Amino acid sequence: MQRLNSKLIEPSNMERERLFSEFPPVSAENWKEKIVEDLKGADYDKKMVWKTGEGFNVNPFYRKEDLPEGCSDAEPGKFPYTRGNSDDNSWLIRQSIDIPSAEEANAKARKMIEEGATSLVFRVRGKLVTPEYIPTLLDGIDAGKVELNFNVCVSKVRIFAAQLVEYYKQRGFDLAAVRGSIEYDPIGKELYAGKVIDDYIATVKEIIGILDELPRYRCLAVNSAGLCNAGAYMTQELACALAWGNEYMNAATEAGIPVGRAAKSIKFNMGISSNFFMEIAKFRAARTLWAKIVEQYAPECKCSGKMIVHAETSEFNLTLFDSYVNMLRTQTEAMSAAIAGVESITVTPFDSVYEAPTDFAMRIAKNQQLILKHESHLDKVVDPAGGSYYIESLTASIAAEAWKIFLAIEEAGGFHKAVKEGKIQKSVEESGNNRRTALAKRKEILLGTNQYPNFSETSEGKHPAAHSCGCGCQDNNAGSTTLAIRRLGEEFEQLRLRTEESGRRPKAFMLTIGNLAMRQARAQFSCNFLATAGYEVIDNLGFKSVEEGVAAALDAKADIVVICSSDDEYAEYAIPAFKAIGEKAIFIVAGAPACMDELQQAGIENFIHVRVNVLETLKGLNAKLGI
Question: What pLDDT, on the 0 to 100 scale, is given for residue 476?
């Protein structure tokens, strides 16, 4: 078949000019005027401007003039690495193995590699660091083809590093080719586990020295993923990660380690939250800022400022109920990190909230990344978000806000000092609490938890799994301040579990009456509202009279009766229904009608609407129900 000549169908310059002349340029002011017109009197800032928790607002649209200065000049692989560390967007698929037995961990690792994992992290407990452990653990694993990472108890990290180097030598691996990390993170140990390690500079120098023979191994870990899991905002996590990394840069250079070697010893393990576009921007901003921090140390080569990032999908927004939805959350999170150009990604298994991940959950987690590579081809294009007015503006905004927080930490004495004083813990916990409050008021939505729950689901004996710092150490220092890591939806889950464990399932009956559209809308709202506590909800098509509705509710042995109608009709229907129900059930009005004062004077106490605190309201109902 003869190919078409592209020149024959390409428009000429004259045609192109004539084509675009039909579309006159539209200014930002014109766009805003049109939006304001369509809002029909509603406040533009309230309706259209997103007030984020990150310290800046997001506009409803962006244009070329919003692009930060110089962003169009950036190239992948060039300082300050905003667009990536290289012109290759491939990443490693990492999976975690937390099995004490070296033989069992080895079998698990080999299976994961066969199924597509290209990076592994082993959780190594201190008592397991023996000369026999590594040969057994890595038997049959080609360290030249798979990245191997080790989370080792801080007290044994030097011994383990020396044993690993010796093992690679004995097995004849190319020491310049093997890659991975031994995670030494004394500040993280204090932050997450309360184990205080003040004098770690000598250890830093020794570990870096031991690993000199493994140039592609990194040993200083910045584990800011825990901050993400505790509810930190993105700018907060990024600022802390930068300050944390800078603390280790200071320690290493003070110990006499050359700047370039020090920088290339640090690896960042960062979290990925569910805000898709902002997370892309966060990682782009992170590389930019870290490159500029390292530049201040005057390394011989600017390439020392490349930020090596391992990204982990968040545990903060995972849920016990409707747990398969966790796969949707982790998929979009992994996608944002892949587009942003990180070096490796861990997808948290969907069932990790309530059990040690099953083989099925681990396989799904790995396959989620394989889909991004082999079906979506995200590894084929470097920084596809580059040049987007929106993403570039987000990158600049996140960088600016994170830099303010970073400078505040540095000016107050640095990250380690802030951890010792509990300032980091306090600020992150405040952020987590703010987000939980937003969830309780439905200003933040967690699908299946505080909105659109699975009405018929039960826990089937599932309970939240305990959080672990990961290395197996149990010797936390008494009195130390550790970061409280709590998931976003825990309180809603506890509420629902208490309902279930009470041995009864309260019935919430929708007494729908009056205006068809309003009663249906309010019944749907009320069903979703009350089902989040695990109540059985009984919706209805509508009743011709209050008497008919009340009789049906009593026949159903309802524990709660919710009248659903229009604001105008509540004045007619609510009080008679309330009096007819009496003490036989809890009576609720769906909405906040103008006649609320009148209804309250008649004795009606319970109203549910978009402005109430859902969690506190449901706790109150549980208390009235004796749960």
Answer: 41
